[in-house]
Amino acid sequence: MTIDILTLFPGMFTGFVSESIIKRAIDGGKVKINVHDIRSYSKDPHKKVDDYGFGGGAGMVLMPQPIFDAVADLKKEDSLVILMTPQGEVYNQKKAFALTEYKHIIIICGHYEGFDERIRTLADMELSIGDFILTGGEIASMAICDSVIRLLDGVITKESYMNESFNDNLLDYPVYTHPADYKGLKVPEVLLSGHHKNIETWRLEQRIKRTKERRPDLFKE
Ligand SMILES: C[S@@+](CC[C@H](N)C(=O)[O-])C[C@H]1O[C@@H](n2cnc3c(N)ncnc32)[C@H](O)[C@@H]1O
Question: Which DSSP letter does residue 31 get?
Fold first, then answer.
């Protein structure tokens, strides 16, 4: 998979691509991430990328030209163009799985007040990561890239993500590590028993119980 990210702040991605599982996925050739500075596509002599909004109002608005040109430059026949916006469909694990099917994704990050409305015409999909406002689409795009990349073949084991929260509309089961007794807080006996069938049953019961308690909305689904 190749991901092209359009942003005004490429430096924000430095840590993201150089640490942990994402770095391993890049080094292992599972994903290629190209971060593009929207400013480099500006045709303005001063590399201007934003301006005041028509009709007034607070904040600067991203102009169409640099983003239209960037998408025209990067887009191929099989590309999916995603626009980060709090007004988009709310992202979830199902959508993360669906995005793994694409070979090429272009992500447009807005900033400041947002982007000129005409930029919407470039997008195949508009995504929000939740009902809150970030200063820009960068952190939102990293959240999406992270959640998709870890699902790509060979990045982490299938077993690691198949029992995770949200698969089957259930939350994950509780996990424990050493010591078995920490300040009187004990690991459930069943996990120390070595009885795999009982452990499996206990874990499923815990997933159901947790989901009912914490996310009755998910459980209903
Ligand atoms: C300050 S926000 C603009 C918000 C816009 N004025 C509104 O109220 O809908 C600037 C940019 O951050 C990104 N952004 C902010 N919150 C987001 C969210 N919850 N999900 C995805 N992107 C978000 C978008 O790219 C947005 O254009």
Answer: -
